[in-house]
Amino acid sequence: MKPTLQKTHENLVQPQPSDERPLADFSTDARVKVRRFGNLPPATLHHLQAYGVLPGREIRVLAQRPLVIIQVEESELALEESVAREVFAEAVQLPV
Amino acid sequence: MSASHTLSPAMPTTGGRIALVGNPNVGKSILFHRLTGQYVTVSNYPGTTVEITRGVTRAIPGAMIIDTPGIVTFPARSEDEAVTARVLLQDPLQAVLQVGDAKNLRRTLHLTVQLAEMGLPIVLALNMIDEAEARGLKLDPSSIADALGMPVISTIATRGQGMHALVEALKQAPVSSLRLEYPQPIEDFLSESEGLFPPASMSPRALGLLWLAGDRVVASWLAERLTPATLAHLQTMRTECESRLGVSPLDAIQRIREDFIQQVVERAIQRQSTGRPTLQSRLSRLTTHPLGGLAILALVLYALYWFVGVFGAGTLVGLLENHLFDQIINPWITDHIQRLIPWKFAVEMLVGEYGLWTMGATYAFALLLPVVTTFFIAFGVLEDSGYLPRMAVLTNRFFSWMGLNGQAVLPMVLGLGCVTMATMTTRTLPSRRERLLVTILLALAVPCSAQLGVVLGMLAGISFSAALIWGGVVLGVLLLVGWLAARLMPGERAPLVVELPPLRLPVLSNVLVKTAARLEWYIKEAVPLFLVGTLLLFTLDQVHILPWLIHATEPVVTDWLGLPPEAASAFLLGIMRRDFAATGLFHMQNHGLLSPLQVVVSIVTITLFVPCIASIFMIAKERGWRTTLGILLFVFPFALLVGGVLYRLLLLFGWS
């Protein structure tokens, strides 16, 4: 059996750098791959990284309202919009 | 370069302390209780207000287990996390037991790698292995153990599974053989700095990595132990390393660790199926739904109000205060004391109008004990169910108005139970700014349950519009003062980033154990404050300052607030017991001494007016006397100002 990351590598071909958007702009249930961070307070940035929100990682956007809720591994993390605007990602596969 | 700090490998083997370390929400406390049983002590970590639980385990004779506050990663972010860092830095440790969430393997290993590098004997407990399996994850602990060079034990702490193997591993915990290679500038820094660090529990390599990462705990610890010259030298070395790297050292270190963790995870997760959304996850989604979530929140708050306000503050207080204390215990004690003690002064002090027993103890045990007990139970249920962070999500927008984030909901809701208690829980907030803001708002505009009960009763006796005016004014003041204070206070608002743990059915025994521990705190910490307050009031009365104070405040009460002079004494007594003010006014309302307009003005004033004397002491304990004085100097005149303005506005609009 292949671990999850194998999937990510296959999908790497598809997205272009121009597909990069802040987390706040993805639709609910989108699978996305984190690209980079914008302007965030260092404490917030490191907190996110410790939860596994890191460039190259695949995460899921579970909700956009009232806050942006993402799934990292098996954890759910709620982010305020101001934070979700500064985390840039690309779509891995469009929601069905 | 000074060579005065030549270092033998810092590996204290005596002391027999085992530190339990882990991310929040990984079942660390449950595992702690599994290991130690009931023989635990709670005390403040030296020099902080953070509580640390210690216990002994019979399975490992002579070893003491320390339950450290949950930490997401190093560098530490909050006061609580800093304590964990300090334990690892300076406590003589026999071993470190990391408790990790099996289903979040990357996050767990992120901490494991950092702990392993510290060079302390270490064991990893992969906890909640059942939850990982339920989500289609099959883990191979032995491959993790091989990669990290340390024992890895699968556990299910809630069921006591894996405890025996864990204890055996702890008895002979080895130092991890893990050694990650960092980019050359970092490696150069680490080998050069090794001789500069003072002896610590953790390895100089780990110290160096933390120093490079800008860890504030390590920085202040080093500042206490190194000469300014050595410190400055280390700083220069860090800057040099940073410029050679071209990125921040923390980012470079993180990348190496992540790559390593990636490899470990790929080998350790043997099977992964994408599970279908479970009932639990659907319910979880509903609790944070913009509309459904608010409906659930309303239900939860109503249930909380019913259990604490109606059942606790109504039914139980009625039974305890009116029946047990007022009719049986107090007459009996008063009678005996009057017969046994011949000195009138002592009798007055114990069982008089402002007696230690008749006022202080009766208040603490007959009135507040049932309220806080029901509150602690309800709170424990909310806590263990995983619902609290969801409340933070739903209320974030509201609190962002006041320069806070949703995390403030916890002390604010607790304040509706008991402001004294809530003031203490502000220490869970990450920044000093947030702690101070919440403390001010609690002191000013959050009525506690003792007061709320009487106030709502009085409002019900007038009209719905009276209740609306009261609620509107108090809420308005809360928002306005919060808004202003947030803008006046230096510092920035911290945006909300919060983990939503899975919703779980609370385990009754866990809730009860926690409630018992909190009640012990209440009796040890809060009850003495009520007694001191009573004594103060008694003294003021004995030296005739109290009647004088009441008389002196009468003009303000009559001329500015438009109330009868009798209200002055209700206001002043309210400083001792918040509900006294309300009860005094209630009494006046019943005797036709207050018009509806006067009722509204007076209860708005007392709601804002007084944090009770116990909460004043608690503010002083948590924030210092200067801050407390500042808060009081603001709250008292401000409450009177709002009351007086409201009085004139209501007159102007002809409300009655």
From TrEMBL, chain A:
One of its GO terms (molecular function) is transition metal ion binding. Residues 1-25 are annotated as: Disordered. Residues 21-91 form the Ferrous iron transporter FeoA-like domain. Pfam families: FeoA (PF04023). Gene3D superfamilies: 2.30.30.90. Keywords: Iron. It comes from the Bacteria. This is Ferrous iron transport protein A. It comes from Anaerolinea thermolimosa. The lineage of its organism: Bacteria, Bacillati, Chloroflexota, Anaerolineae, Anaerolineales.
Automatic annotation (TrEMBL), chain B:
Keywords: Cell membrane, GTP-binding, Ion transport, Iron, Iron transport, Magnesium, Membrane, Metal-binding, Nucleotide-binding, Transmembrane, Transmembrane helix, Transport. The chain crosses the membrane at residues 291-320, 354-378, 398-424, 436-462, 468-486, 527-550, 597-619, 631-655. Pfam families: FeoB_C (PF07664), FeoB_Cyto (PF17910), FeoB_N (PF02421), Gate (PF07670). It is a multi-pass membrane protein. Gene3D superfamilies: P-loop containing nucleotide triphosphate hydrolases. GO terms for molecular function: ferrous iron transmembrane transporter activity; GTP binding; metal ion binding. SUPFAM superfamilies: P-loop containing nucleoside triphosphate hydrolases. Residues 15-176 form the FeoB-type G domain. GTP binds at residues 22-29, 47-51, 67-70, 127-130. The keyword Glycosyltransferase does not apply. Belongs to the TRAFAC class TrmE-Era-EngA-EngB-Septin-like GTPase superfamily. FeoB GTPase (TC 9.A.8) family. Probable transporter of a GTP-driven Fe(2+) uptake system. NCBIfam families: feoB, small_GTP. This is Ferrous iron transport protein B. The gene is feoB.
